Amino acid sequence: MSDKEVKNLEEIFEARITRDEKIEPKDWMPEKYRKTHIRQISQHAHSEIVGMLPEGNWISRAPSLRRKVALLAKVQDEAGHGLYLYSACETLGISREELYEQLHTGKAKYSSIFNYPTVSWADMGAIGWLVDGAAIINQVPLCSTSYGPYARAMIRVCKEESFHQRQGFEIMLKLANGTPEQKDMAQDALNRWWWPSLMMLGPTDAESVHTAQSMKWKLKRKTNDELRQQFIDQTVPQADLLGLTIPDSDLKWNEETGHYDFGEINWDEFWQVVKGHGPSNKKRMKDRVGAWDRGAWVRDAAMEYADKKEKRKNDTKKAV
Amino acid sequence: MSKKNWPLWEVFVRSKNGLEHRHFGSLRAADADMAMENARDVYTRRSEGVSIWVVESNNITASNPENNGELFEPAADKVYRHPTFYDLPDEVKHM
Description:
Order of helices and strands of chain B: EEHEH
CATH topology of the domain at 1-59 in chain B: Ubiquitin-like (UB roll)
Radius of gyration of chain B: 21 Å
Strand content of chain A: under 5%
Oligomer: heterodimer
Radius of gyration of chain A: 22 Å
Strand order of the largest sheet of chain A: 1-2
Distance between the termini of chain B: 66 Å
Mean pLDDT of chain B: 93
Distance between the termini of chain A: 54 Å
Mean pLDDT of chain A: 95
Shape of chain B: elongated
CATH class of the domain at 1-59 in chain B: Alpha Beta
Structural class of chain B: alpha+beta
Low-confidence stretches of chain B: none
Largest sheet of chain A: 2 strands, antiparallel
Largest interface: A-B, 29 and 23 residues
CATH architecture of the domain at 1-59 in chain B: Roll
Number of strands of chain B: 3
Number of helices of chain A: 12
Order of helices and strands of chain A: HHHHHHHHHEEHHH
CATH superfamily of the domain at 1-59 in chain B: Phenylacetic acid degradation B
Helix content of chain B: 10-25%
């Protein structure tokens, strides 16, 4: 195809997106659109899969059966979300194996938030309330993104996600109204998860290199800073309701803007974690790769068994 | 490393009797039985369906958007296939 032809196709393509038309897998798309989507959808899928690890840590130690079934169901949802997203990503012409390879070799990123350890039961509450809360804010606009398979996966994800946040908030509520030790535990979890949750919404608009293009493709509908402000505005009253204190002395309501002002985010910490130097990066990857490698014989055996069954079926057919 | 990768399957779910099966998404599985079990776990965790079809993606023949013109455009100028093409007196109220 000549440069002129490509340019023409690109113009038609951009016009379709402007008209809010969806792009489907077999439609022509600019190479950059494909690559950007593979990057974002796979990061998203990896985050769901790695996100199971910090919570999986607490399934066997949940304080009651009620909490245990809820946490199990939540972790199972995350596996499901990862799978929806991997198959959406595969429609762009990348194989599942390549995607796993990119995760396992560190070439692909996942959400920085999962590189923090889960040291107490209250962390299950804080993750559901804050981390899933921030994720929802990030994800809801994606339900109307331009790439059809991604948008459809996100609609399903968003439907399931609100239980995650509610179960987390309920854990926090119970602890906050419990013994002084339990309340301390809840406060401690909030102290540790607050800032990473704010960072999770991505670098500031000034630092975010992909924002402009992603907004154009509706891969992003609001900037990181807008999403962050929305998260803070909605979460502060919830913390008040819990009787817990958000660990930010600069946090205060701004009558003029109608938003909360908040303190400086430690972006050095964010970039350190993104670059692999967070408290749990190594452990997460070791656990993930280990689980994958230890499962290899199961995958192989399943394939062998499927082939054997198929062969037997064909032999029977021939015999008849 | 696995010797062979699990093939891709497409999942169709009937949400309730009276409705058609609708494409829900895809998944990887070694064979049809596993595809069915995985479809149950991945796509119907919250009573989304009463019936599931799984079909290996290889077995689907799909039209190519490049051919959309020859495939679908001929229908565009056949207005006589629609009821509004026909002029009837107002006295004929419902037809």
